[in-house]
Amino acid sequence: MASPEPTVDDGYDVIIYGASLAGIMAALRLRLRGLSSLILEPTGHVGGIVAGGLVKSDTPNVPEALAGLTKTRFFDGIGAEYGLDGPEYRFEPKVAEKVARHLLDESKATVLLHQRIHGPDDVDVQGRRIRGVRTTQGWRRARFFVDASYEGDLMAAAGVPYTFGREPRAKYDEPFAGFQPVQAYRKHGFTPNTLYPVRDVPAMAAGEGDDKTQAYNFRGVLSTNADRIPFPKPDDYDPARYTYLGQLLRQRNIPGLSSIVTHTALLPNGKYQTNQALYFGFDLPGVNWDYPDGSWRRREEIIAEQVAWHQGQLYWLANDPSLPESFRADARTFGLPPDEFVDSPYGQGFPHALYIREARRMVGAQVLTQHDLLKPNNTKTHPVCCWKYGMDSHLVQYYPEGDDTVVGEGTLSGDETNPPVDLYQMPAEVLFPARGGIENITVSICFSASHVGYTSPRMEPNYGMLGEACGELAAQSLSTGRPVQEYDYPELAAALVEHGAVLSLPGLD
Question: Given this model, what pLDDT does residue 3 score?
Fold first, then answer.
């Protein structure tokens, strides 16, 4: 696809795109096999979203499913930073980044920051093999590649088939697929019901597919300490954007910000995690639809709008005269933590990473669907880990209905719960392309799944375990010289288990 230009060839065995938890775990596994890695990180920070704000980790409903180096080296490592003997799943971002950097040092991986893939011209593919990636320092070459990014840009640029948005119900016969007006939230008492961020009523039938993606947000960290930074007023602040939030706060008689965030206390220093929280909150449905397959320029525009929404909302909660003074006073007991995100491009104390819940998804050797999350399809011939977490899709869009109703569509339950799943196994075949495709790539975060199939395993601890499997698949392919599609499963299973992976658990059958 690309014309080779001046090349910097350092003899790395594997290039990993993304210093996410998945990428770090892949690098660590490769180091344990005696292999070297070059990590190209598209942002200015390592650790992915767990170092960028998502510090209240969603763990599996069966605790034993979280295993391998992801548990013993990352989450146990975080626990050790707090003097604990075991894992910790609520933590400060600076601690997550510290552990991430330690593990990168342990893996002896070279990390280059601000290395973005923009399209096919940045990836050299010859036949069915990737040969190199263009960087700011010239072309970098390797024998194998791992896409551990949230966007899947390496995978896409290399010509690996992928999709985004929501498949129609008929595609995989998934009951929860496509447009879901029946399972939508319906909240009343909003007049007019067409203000920002409400969009037009979708002109489509239930079950039809679309290119829309569930909402993103920033997972902020708030501090109650004396040195907290007061919530800044954004340059483009518009209090009218929060009209519906104000109406919702009054409807629910919510007395202050404390009642929204204090259940998310982090260890140990007076800090709290933000999430969507309410029907109108820090999520911003509809703004992100262009993100998965968009240019980096378009993505930056989307990120900027999300920054304005989140920062403006915090300022509004602490200062808007439409709120009771008691509410505003409570909100002002919180601020941004000066010891977190110290070099964030969006201001000290504000997260440097947008939470990309779902972007591209590979169409690989096997597509994980809703059926694979439930018995009897939950067991696999070639498992690489186990998982169990409800089907969690945030809102995709708001649209008006009647005179005072705002519909929130995109969830799979119609309320604040997630449809349950059974304990299931993740198969190796979701981590690489189908036979006849690219032979030297594995994909850990944008793995092969339908939208509904993706809603359960899309959690950082699971990404870490999938990253471990991607590293072991790469190591085996390099050892044998065979395409990744021709892997030897007994050898892969033995390699995974050697460092603590759990491939089967009671309750699967």
Answer: 45
Give the per-residue pLDDT at 6. Answer: 67
pLDDT, residue 1, reads: 47
**SS3 for 301?**
helix
Helix (H), strand (E) counts: the chain: 14, 18
Residue 485 forms part of a structural domain: yes
Residue 338: asked if its preceding bond is cis (omega within 30°), the reply is: no
Instruction: Output the pLDDT for position 140.
Output: 97
> Which candidate, 375, 320, 387, places its Cα nearest to that of 64?
387
Instruction: Catalogue the long-range contacts made by 43-46 (C-beta closer than 8 Å, 24 or more residues apart).
Output: 43/113, 43/114, 43/352, 43/353, 44/113, 44/114, 44/343, 44/345, 44/352, 45/19, 45/97, 45/113, 45/352, 45/353, 46/19, 46/97, 46/100, 46/101, 46/104, 46/111, 46/113
Tokens of 259: 């009642």
* Domain membership flag for residue 31: yes
Task: Identify the pLDDT of residue 268.
Answer: 75
Q: How many CB atoms lie within 10 A of CB 270?
A: 14
Spans of the chain below 70 pLDDT: 1-6
Domain boundaries, position 134 = 7-164+430-490
| Neighbour count for residue 194 (Cβ, 10 Å) | 14
User: Final residue of a domain: which of 305, 331, 357?
Assistant: 331
CA distance 305 to 303: 5
Distance spanning both ends of the chain, measured CA to CA: 46
Given the structure tokens 């169990």, which residue do they identify? 388
Question: What is the pLDDT at residue 67?
Answer: 98
One-letter identity of residue 321: P
**CA distance linking residue 391 with residue 370, whole number of Å:** 9
Q: Are 55 and 351 in contact (CB under 8 A)?
A: no
> For the sheet containing 37-40, what is the strand order?
110-112, 37-40, 14-17, 144-147, 441-443
In a domain, 24, yes or no: yes
Going by the DSSP 8-state scheme, the letter that residue 194 receives in this structure is -
Amino acid identity for residue 221 in this structure: V
